[in-house]
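Archive entry: two folds, one per protein. Generate the first.
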Amino acid sequence: MATRLNPYLTFNGDARQAMEFYKEVFGGTLTLNSYGDFGQGDTPHADQIMHGMLETTGGLTLMGADNPPGTEVPQGSPFSVSLSGDDDAELRGYWEKLSRDGSVSVPLEKQMWGDEFGMCTDRFGVPWMVNISSPES
């Protein structure tokens, strides 16, 4: 397997819902393993996600999990998840789903560099950037 770099998101108890939402957005195969699956079935966090992975046929990989018991997710982490490419329909579809029930900080529109770009935060508090490359002139 080739080395790959992909986002790994951490949640405070709603990783299952978030990862299922991202599967609705991007499609693909979602694998979820709970703490209970790994020998912690008799604990209050047994149903929380220890590790989740979404892999799409287009090559996207997104991982996520609930924060380990006894710890909290730091708020205001300096990260965004970026989607970019030239498939207008695909990227607009992702934008519509991600921004629905979330907040838009930069509308998806033409920017000074010629591409369409937007920034939003989804309903789970994850910030996203979408850049649709303009066709070469």
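Generate the second and append.
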Amino acid sequence: MIDHMKTTIRKMGNSQGVLIPKPFLAQLGLENEVEMNVEDDAIVLRRPRTHAREGWAEASKSIAAASDDTLVMGEFGNDDDTELEW
């Protein structure tokens, strides 16, 4: 397991960058895309996180198609709302 290596910052087009050794990428399972941010005084690369609710739209469509979309908690009535003051 590799955990430390010194590398050179290189000119890449109009930007600068570093080459990440293949063993680092393989060790972390990084392939085509990473999330990059600055934490304290370090540049941190991570696997992209899945977005909250990713795939929910497709899942809800398949649940509805299977007619399995009944309310779990039942209906919520608004009978007592007339007494509320806004």
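Annotation attached to the second fold: The two ends are 63 Å apart (CA to CA). The chain has a mean pLDDT of 85.
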